[in-house]
Amino acid sequence: MAAIFRPIPWAFRGSLCLPLSARRFSKTADENRSLAGKVAVITGSTRGIGFAIARRLAQDGAHVVISSRKQENVDEAVTILKEEGLSVTGTMCHVGKAEDRQHLVTTALKHSGGIDFLVCVAGVNPLVGSTLGASEQIWDKILDVNVKSPALLLSKVLPYMENRRGGSVVLVSSGVAYVPVPKLGVYNTSKTALLGLCKSLAVELAPKGIRVNCLVPGIIKTDFTLREKTMPNMLPDMNKIFGVKRLGEPEECAGLVSFLCSSDASYITGENIMVAGFSSKL
Ligand SMILES: NC(=O)c1ccc[n+]([C@@H]2O[C@H](COP(=O)([O-])OP(=O)(O)OC[C@H]3O[C@@H](n4cnc5c(N)ncnc54)[C@H](O)[C@@H]3O)[C@@H](O)[C@H]2O)c1
C-alpha cells in the first residue's frame, strides 16, 4: 500500500519547524525589530519622557509621529532623531485643541494610511497650592489636557487603528495617583482619573483587539520634575524606605512602553504599571 504522506504542521524549514502554537510567536530576521512596520503617534514627545519613548519606539522599528505645543520644538526633536537614522515625522499639536488633534491624526495617516499605537504623554500642572483654592480655569486646564485629551484624541485615531492588527494605547499617569503629593491636589486627581480611564477603555476596546495600558512613573529626571520642586523632595523619602534610592531616567519608562506596544504584550490590557523604583502595592 502506498504510504500516505501526512505532513505534520511543524515539519518544515526555519520557523515553520515549530509547532503551530509556537510559530505564532516566532519571527523572521526581517521582523526582528519588535515594532517594524508600525506607526506610533505620541503626544508631548519633544522632550522628557515623551522624547525618550519616541526614540525607543523608532529604534524598535516603528515610524513615530512626534508632537507638542510648539512647532520649533517638534522640528528640533525630529531633526535629532532623523540624524540618528530613525523614521520620524512631526507636527505641532496642543492636545487641548480639537483642530490640532485632527491635524495630528491627518499627519500620521500620511505615512501608511493607518495608526497602530497611541501614546498620550502630554501633561500639565499649572498649580502648586490648595485643591479647594484652585480656580475653575485651573481645573479645566488640567482636566482638559491630562484626562479629556487622551480620550478625545483616541476617538479620532480609533477608526484607523481598528483597521490594523494589534493596536495598543498607552496612557501616562503618575505615582501621585497612588501617593498624593501635597499641594498638587488637582494634578493628583487628574492622574488618578487616568487609571480609571485606562480600565474603562481597556474593557471597551478589547472586543476590537485594541489594548489599553497605563504607564505610572514615579519621579523621573525631566524638566517637569525640576519645575515641581515638591515632588523630588517627597519621593526620595519613599525611595529611602521602599525602593532603589535614586530618581528614574526617562529611558527607564520608554522600555515598558515599547514592550506594551509589542506583540510580546499581546495578552496584556487594562494594566496600570508603575516605573518608580518602588511598588505602590507594598
Ligand atoms: N517627570 C516625572 O517625574 C513624572 C512623573 C509622573 C508622571 N509624569 C508625567 O509624564 C508626562 C511627561 O512628563 P515629563 O516629565 O516628560 O514632562 P516635560 O515637561 O519634560 O515634557 C512634557 C511634554 O508635554 C508637552 N506638553 C505639555 N502640555 C501640552 C499640551 N497641552 N499639548 C501637547 N503637548 C504638551 C510639552 O511640550 C513636553 O514635550 C506628563 O504627563 C507627566 O504628568 C512625569
TrEMBL record:
GO terms for molecular function: all-trans-retinol dehydrogenase (NADP+) activity; carbonyl reductase (NADPH) activity. It catalyses: 5beta-dihydrotestosterone + NADPH + H(+) = 5beta-androstane-3alpha,17beta-diol + NADP(+); all-trans-retinol + NADP(+) = all-trans-retinal + NADPH + H(+); isatin + NADPH + H(+) = 3-hydroxyindolin-2-one + NADP(+); 3alpha-hydroxy-5beta-pregnan-20-one + NADP(+) = 5beta-pregnan-3,20-dione + NADPH + H(+). GO terms for cellular component: peroxisome. The keyword Oxidoreductase applies. NCBIfam families: PRK07231.1. Belongs to the short-chain dehydrogenases/reductases (SDR) family. This is Dehydrogenase/reductase SDR family member 4. It comes from Mus musculus. The lineage of its organism: Eukaryota, Metazoa, Chordata, Craniata, Vertebrata. The gene is Dhrs2.
